[in-house]
Amino acid sequence: MERRDFIKSLFMSGLAVKLKPEPFPQPPLPELSVAEGESPAVITREALKTLGGMSRFVSRADKVLVKPNIGWDRTPEMAACTNPEVVRALVEMAYEAGAREVIVMDHTINQAKRCYVRSGVQEAARQAGAKVLFAEEQRLKKVALKGEWLKEWSVFQDFLEVDRIINVPVAKVHSLSRVTLGMKNWLGAIGGSRNQLHQRIDQSMVDLAAFFKPSLTVLDAYRILFRNGPQGGRVSDTKLMKTVIAGTDPVAVDAYGATFFDLKPAELLFLKLARDRGLGKSDLEKVRIEKRKV
Amino acid sequence: MKREKSKKYGWLQWLRILSQIIFFSLFFFLFLKTHYPGEDYFKTTVERFFHFDPLLALATIIGSRIVYLALLLSGITLVAALFLGRFVCGWVCPLGTVHQFFSFIFKKAGVLKPKKDDRMTLVPKYLILTIILVAAIFALNLSGYLDPLSLLYRSFAVYVSPLLNLIFSRSGSLAYSVGLKSIGQELGQTLGNLSLNNIFHNALFIGLIFLGVLLLNAWKERFWCRYLCPTGALLGLFSRFNLFKLKIDPNRCIECNLCSIQCETDARPFPAENWRSSECVYCETCAAICPTAAITFPLRWQKEKIKGVNLSRRKVLLTSLTAIFLTPIFKITSSRQRSSPALIRPPGALPEEKFLAKCVKCGECMKVCPTNGLQPALAEAGPEGLWTPVLVPRIGYCEYYCSLCTQVCPTGAIRELTVEEKTQVKIGTAWVNKNRCLPYALGKPCIVCEEHCPVSPKAIQLIRIATVTPEGKIESPLAPFVNVDTCIGCGICENKCPVVDEPAITVSSVGEQRSEKNRLILQVIGEDEPH
Fold first, then answer.
1. B residues 233-252 near A, CB within 8 Å?
2. Is the per-residue pLDDT at A5 higher than 80?
């Protein structure tokens, strides 16, 4: 090779390196995605797509536990339990992302079988291929929660044996914590005297939320319960919001959920405690939120 | 002469055993099926067996003066008895099958040795029947204590169901503990599906009676059927034609007496003219074991008389008189005058008097209750109300959208209700005990009762109260206040109250809709009208 050619080629290759197209600068993914629309399933999918897709949370061969609120023997129109279509969409998406097994369960308040049937969650989740399990007393295990108040508590081992947990609460009012959203949903993952947690409900919720650490929280606000919570009883106790909020920050999800009830996140004690505990952001101004309408 | 057993009757005996197995399995299958089926209404009549029981039909219809249509099916049993004798006892009755089985076991074990000439009188069951029927005339229904189906189902519901639950859950946790997770899960989930109730106060009492009755088979074969069963006695009285007559071929008979010794019910096949047709359950044992096949049951039309049972007019009369004197004793109870606060009846239960006249203490409602809340009463309802269902909220509450107990009641003591109707029925009223309620007594937050109240708008409302602590601090938690008009008395508040030993909110029967006396707020018609 002649010197000139060599220099030329050196120059060209240097140029090639220099001109190699830079990766397109992507905006950072949102921490919270809010999807609004007519179909609970479609907005659930949209909310996840906006958040970067289910594959961001579920890897191949993962065992996933989807934890809806199926606490009450109520139909979806009563908005006491998570919308079955939201659960169905999540189970489907988890399988699409390559999950090995998806479990759906809750520790109900009314007779478990009734809640599973009337809420419609059992059927929807089964159709999507999930294993729907009753919470079994004998699967309870005392676990060190290392909470501020709850040092140890009995937890269903099913929650400890999975790779990923997806929390799917429904937005409702509650007389003590004022609203029940994602963090309060953890009362359905534990056994023991749950009714005694009310003596310090906000701290309990935060202690549990700090322990369970979901990969993803999807708040069902398709139909919210604004009165007579947390189980309602009449359709007139509910309001259609047609919204699903998905997020990686459980505190931010609950903070956003509070706004449906005309509450400022700052008014809620559990959000403050959760923020101070470092579980997430309660100030929505500081959260990257992306809204979609479908 | 060649000695050879009858092949035909050998087969017939097997057929009888098969029939017993089938009917018992059906009974057990329906028993297991008596739980929340995954929808609001049963598609099968799980309580069907009871409708074919003529004793229950007679006692409840006479006792309550109300004809419950389904019970008329028992007419079929009576007509069958008229022409076929007590074959129902031998071929169909599930309790008879249980007794037969245990007698068989005791015989094989050498504990039960049938005697040649048993002198024990068969009269008691007829006298028991007399007492039940006479009491029914005086509106007292005693059939539930000793009716075979009631006894069996009650024992199963209150005693066997907890045992099954124990077996399932123990083997489930065993499987989990040795690492067989899928088996443990299978068992645990099955248990969640079957909801086998496992807590019954006085289960031991009912269970011991059941075991006692089974143990009697070690003394006499089918002891219960021979001496005690009032339904068997009733069918015996109806055995008037018995188309199949026992016949012993005198040329073949070697008078070994084996037939009479081995007779399940002491019907004395030998000699044939003394055969007690009203005691024969057509088990075919005698014909099958006869070493010379001398016994047959050919078809013949002839009226039958009750033989071998010394049922004198005097005895029946005396027993009837006893029953007449017994009736008021059963009815002398304070609950007639003033309702017991603990006597919370299931929704749809008839007014107490009619309810007691109809309830046969079978335990169907206790088996089906999804929360285990329906319990066999001990003293709450007086002597005649022993083992009738009573809701004990501390054990289980009345599930809001459930009307299953009203669907399975075989006699209509609990009126059938739709779920919609049931949610409107008030069975009692909740009362807050401020001395124990956390906000009132300790100034601590709670609201658990309010949260669980299924009525909308909630019957438990919250008020802001002020509780002064010893430090002089004024706590102002939210505290429950019961709206007695909308409270339906379901008892979920009592059940979920965190003050576990003696809940701070308790339901009592007052205000129950079915009673005209046990009312709380007097509602005078026209009160709200303008003057």
1. none
2. no
